[in-house]
Specification:
The complex is a heterodimer of chains A (306) and B (274).
Chain A: H1 23-38, E1 44-45, H2 59-68, E2 74-79, H3 86-98, E3 102-103, E4 112-116, E5 129-133, H4 147-155, H5 160-173, E6 184-186, E7 190-192, H6 202-205, E8 211-216, E9 221-225, E10 231-233, E11 260-264, E12 271-275, H7 278-286, H8 297-305
Parallel strand pairs in A: 2-3, 2-4, 4-5, 5-8
Antiparallel strand pairs in A: 1-9, 6-7, 6-10, 8-9, 11-12
Helix pairs in contact in A: 1-2
Chain B: H1 2-15, E1 23-32, E2 35-45, E3 50-54, H2 61-68, E4 76-82, E5 88-90, H3 96-105, E6 107-110, H4 114-117, H5 124-134, H6 140-153, H7 170-182, E7 188-192, H8 200-217, E8 220-225, H9 228-234, E9 237-242, E10 245-251, H10 252-257, H11 262-269
Parallel strand pairs in B: 3-8, 3-9, 6-7, 7-8
Antiparallel strand pairs in B: 1-2, 1-4, 4-5, 9-10
Classes of the chains: A alpha/beta (306), B alpha/beta (274).
């Protein structure tokens, strides 16, 4: 954070400014971020730049990160919770190269965490910043196709339509079947799309100590949730909001109450459930926790019995 | 024409429906560049009264309806409405939020083509419940029960509540649209050719239903139609428009049985006899 306005050309990449973007662009984006923080949940338009990656790969998140990162920051990048997928590795390498910042996979060590579609399991601390990559920032997009109309609906706080969608879910499926990009109301005012995070992560946004920034590059919108802000998932009185529940713990670290990925092991129906947050899983395993597939004797025995 | 208006006001006073009109339209004019949409239209509408606006295509009926229902701002003129608290407010001087709130609580708008007034991709229940959710109802069971109740009132079977309107016939869609508008118990409903495009037996049932609802709920209605039979059946009063101007106004029976303006005479004599 607080990158110096002028940066000495580095030996490795002299033709790029610090963190790739030029200082004017960063200032423009910081203004949008500040406005977003001042009006929690409000989508601030900004002049999104071309980035050296295709739209849909996190151009919005990368621009936000580039604008707030400083030489002292420690960056972590996750993609669906994992530190080791293509997108996460590439973006981490990008900032290591253009900003020479330290990178990490450990959630607690990071000052900036750029994320695609997950919030780390380890609760975030004051001073940390979570940067989301957002594909479609407008929660009303598929309900009302006209942007002029959706802006008016936000301005006048007309959010009945959002509940029409939830009503429709219950009418068709008997329960609210929206499992990701689950709409939330921020600080009692703006309805916001939390980006396609599983609804499992929605409660983590509520009164989080960390600053949460959202960047949508193709759609040219930035929005923010300041620390300790109310973030409430929309629901009905007789169909309250619920997060996903998993019937078994992580197969590697035995963690419960975390979001699990289903991994197909063979073509005979074999499958395992593992933590989606790789750092959380590794930290637990380093601490001696073992799941069924890493030889937890007690759990393995239980499995045989059942 | 003058005497007809006097007769009307006399009727209002003797019947004592209300002292103040629900809706007062004064000098509404809308121009499209050099062309006139409607010019200098004034009328008053009292609670529980049905007013028909008739005229041929292009006579400015729909422009007028859109102007008074705040869907299209007029070039000049005033539309005042007596709110539920008894205060009269100029709808074009209200804040937009207030006006839109009024439109989806105390007013209804029935489009000629149900596709314009319905959400075709959500179920009938959600269509009827949308207004309830928009004004803050957050109980699924209650919303669904009111939706079913209203579907039954407009003669749609309760087991169709989860079907999408695209699975409905034209007549059912129109009835669904009416239910969707009436669920918040509005006092004033605008209708643009509500029976347009329906075959005659379906029209007859819809008109029957509308007449029932209007008298049960004491609705005030402004209905635009080119079909004089619809005007005859539904309305208490009518105004006849030609080239954007009102050429005749009065009680429906009077206008249809004893038309005075030459154009109205032509219109009445053009009704096909079966």
């Amino acid at each position: 954070m607080n990158a110096p306005l002028t940066q000495e050309p580095t030996e490795t990449l002299a033709r790029y400014n610090f963190a790739y973007l030029d200082e004017q662009t960063k200032r423009m984006i910081r203004r949008a971020i500040l406005k977003g923080i001042a009006i929690p949940g409000y989508q601030v338009p900004f002049a999104s730049r071309e980035m050296p990656m295709p739209y849909g790969w996190g151009t919005g998140g990368v621009q936000v990160t580039a604008s707030i990162i400083g030489p002292d920051d420690v960056l972590k990048v996750i993609d669906q919770g994992a530190d080791d997928t293509t997108n996460a590795v590439s973006i981490r390498a990008f900032f290591a190269k253009t900003a020479s910042v330290e990178t990490t996979t450990v959630t607690t060590d990071a000052s900036i965490i750029q994320t695609r579609h997950r919030i780390p399991e380890t609760p975030l601390q004051e001073g940390q910043i979570l940067v989301y990559q957002v594909p479609i920032p407008e929660p009303l997009r598929f309900l009302e196709p006209r942007e002029t109309e959706t802006r008016k609906m936000h301005a006048l706080e007309e959010y009945g339509l959002m509940h029409v969608k939830l009503y429709e879910d219950i009418a068709r499926n008997g329960h609210i079947a929206t499992t990701y990009a689950y709409p939330v109301k921020v600080e009692g005012r703006y309805v916001m799309d939390p980006s396609p995070t599983p609804k499992f992560d929605n409660p983590k946004m509520h009164r989080s100590a960390a600053l949460q920034l959202f960047g949508a590059g193709r759609e040219k919108r930035i929005y923010a949730i300041p620390p300790h802000t109310d973030v409430v998932s929309l629901d009905f009185e007789d169909h309250p909001f619920e997060i996903q529940h998993f019937e078994q713990p992580c197969a590697l670290c035995g963690a419960e109450q975390v979001y699990l990925d289903e991994v197909v092991l063979d073509d005979r129906g074999g499958r395992m459930f593992v933590c989606s947050d790789t750092d959380h899983c590794e930290t637990r395993r380093a601490g001696g926790h073992r799941g069924t597939m890493l030889g937890d004797p007690f759990l393995a025995e239980e499995k045989e019995v059942s | 024409m003058q005497s007809a208006q006097e007769q009307d006001s006399a009727r209002m006073q003797t019947s004592g429906v209300a002292e103040h009109p629900l809706l007062a339209v004064e000098g509404i004019t809308r121009v499209y560049g050099e062309r006139i949409g409607c010019a200098d239209v004034s009328f008053e509408l009292f609670a529980g009264e049905v007013l028909a606006i008739v005229g041929e295509s292009g006579s400015g009926k729909t422009t007028l309806l859109n102007c008074i229902s705040s869907r299209l701002s007029p070039t000049c003129g005033r539309v005042s409405y007596r709110m539920r608290d008894g205060q009269t407010a100029d709808i074009y001087k209200m804040a937009e939020a207030e006006r839109r709130h009024l439109m989806r609580t105390d007013w209804g708008f029935v489009h000629q083509n149900p596709i314009d007034g319905l959400r075709m991709t959500v179920s009938a229940g959600a269509n009827v419940g949308e207004r309830l959710m928009a004004i803050g109802d957050r109980h699924y069971g209650n919303i669904r029960n009111s939706a079913i109740e209203w579907l039954e009132r407009v003669e749609i079977a309760a087991d169709r509540v989860d079907d999408q309107p695209r699975a409905f016939s034209g007549g059912m869609r129109q009835r669904l649209q009416i239910a969707r508008n009436l669920v918040t118990e509005p006092r004033l409903v605008f209708m643009d050719e509500p029976t347009g495009g329906l075959d005659v037996s379906v029209q007859a049932r819809l008109l029957d239903l509308l007449r029932g609802l209007v008298s049960d709920l004491g609705l005030a209605v402004v209905v635009v139609t080119h079909d004089l039979a619809v005007a005859r059946l539904l309305s208490d009063r009518m105004i006849v428009m030609k080239d954007g101007r009102v050429i005749e106004a009065g009680l429906t029976d009077r206008v249809l049985d004893d038309p005075r303006a030459p154009y109205t005479q032509l219109l009445v004599s053009s009704i096909l006899q079966v």
